[in-house]
Amino acid sequence: MNAVATAKLQNQGQGKLSTEHVCIGVLGLQGDYQKHLEMLHSIDGVNAKIVRTAQEISEWCDGLVIPGGESTTVGKLMARYGVDTAIIERAAKGMAVFGTCTGMILLASEIEGSDQHRLGLMDTTVRRNAYGRQLDSFEADLDVPCLGGKTVRAVFIRAPQITAVGSKVEVLATLESGEAVMIRQGNCLAISFHPELTDDTRVHKYFVEVTREAAVGLMAR
Ligand code: GLN
Hints:
The chain is built from seven helices and twelve strands. The protein is an alpha/beta fold. The chain starts with a helix and ends with a helix. The structure holds glutamine. The site of glutamine (GLN) has 11 residues, from helix 6.
């Protein structure tokens, strides 16, 4: 049972609702999911597990991480198992979604030059592999004001580029060139780099807060 369902049950008729724990699934169809799981396990107040089915997403997740990998493969697998529909329906009801790299591509409404399968939950256009091949992967220190304190070491691996964002999209971090690399639209967070490959947990903690805010909002309904 997810945090919203648990809190509603515990607090029936008692007014005050709280979310001590949130349940965050890491989509484990393909790619870099294990590292995200380890990172989430290190954060207090989080129940985390790998999820692969529509049912787990519909019934268990308050938040979902879509990790880096290969977006055409993950898109096809999502469609084959009905996971795409479950994510779209749950996100519409307030589940938080965090896409890194491939996850960011799958969240976008437009993918330049491609009709590959996607979720289209964010009003963004992305260009795949925009920074070149595996060998052109790079790292950068980013100022991310919403995380406070020191810069974030960002690892980019065959990363997509965000080429356009709609008016509801908030840009949370950019490269020195001004290109957006971390964005948020309501309950959806997307970044083009890989925070799970460093030992800095601040990006994941931020997503936990997005999930908690969304769960509190749902409980109040
Ligand atoms: N290039 C990959 C894609 O298009 C994304 C790479 C990644 O997730 N690190 O899906």
